[in-house]
Amino acid sequence: MTAERVRWGVLATGGIAAAFTGDLLDLPDADVVAVASRTDASAKAFAERFGIPRAYGDWASLAADDEVDIVYVATPHAAHRKAAGMCLEAGRAVLCEKAFTLNAREAGELVDLARERGLFLMEAMWMYCNPLIRRLKALVDDGALGEIRTVQADFGIDGPFPPTHRLRDPAQGGGALLDLGVYPVSFAHLFLGEPSGVTARSTLSPEGVDLQTGMVLSWDSGAQAVLHCAVNSSTPVAASVTGSEGRVEIPGGFFHPERFVLHRDGREPEEFLLDPADGPRGTLRHEAAEVMRCLREGATESPLVPLSSSLAVMRTLDSVRDQVGIRYPDEVR
Fold first, then answer.
1. What is the pTM of this model?
2. Which of 11, 41, 247, 310 is an S-S bond match for 123, by CB 3.0 to 4.6 Å?
3. What is d(CA 92, CA 87) in angstroms, rounded to the nearest whole number?
4. What is the pLDDT of residues 230-264, one digit of tens each?
5. What Rg, from alpha-carbon coordinates, does the chain have?
């Protein structure tokens, strides 16, 4: 790594890896220098698509590449512990997709490993790096809504997904909760921290993963969050934060919004819009830019996506799974 450029490796070649790599290539200070997959053919095809100079048919070769400053882990979350751990063991900084891992134990192991090695580690919770979400967080922290009373958020897609799809495969950590529910849960954590109480109900598939899950989180302050995720129904993907002095509504795509509206008693609604200078609505570049800022400053974690938050979210997701009976093959909790 130089003061000007950061060299990225990409581990996995699926849709999210392609989206992130495309956005990396739009950044003038990022170089994507290597990609790894489970097969040579997949890695080479991805490398040709994006003009990446080195392609590896195994993860270990990427982890061992000393010309890679940081590895972006984009596998299904059931493989995050193994893939991210391999890279950290080899001395690579890591940006790991969400959900961070299958469970809090695995997340804790990655955090401990990164801290032991003095390496940067961050969950790829791009929502926390989004400029409008950061603006909303600043408004809430400044007291624009008063005392927070309620958070509501949902994320559902309609499918239908066949039993062979990764979203219904227990071996890949399938189901709505870890793939989609991590967003509403992380949204609630952003404003209220880790809850003191969790209540949940799910509709399970024949394979034992959740097709939809409803959650009510509670805090000692009296605040509550009402959250929902689904892979069997398309929902508004909307969110709101309500306090003693007002509320904010995000009408759709709350985790990468193009606008939100602030309502306060006695005042006209205030609309906050995504600045065109911040790029297209769905860009992942803010997350990448935050990672590179941290690396240049020698930081081992980001203040926008702190490891303590990722651990707390995983504990909440574990609590939900305990209540609804979601278990993954060979998982150790």
1. 0.97
2. 310
3. 5
4. 999 999 999 999 999 999 999 999 999 999 999 99
5. 20
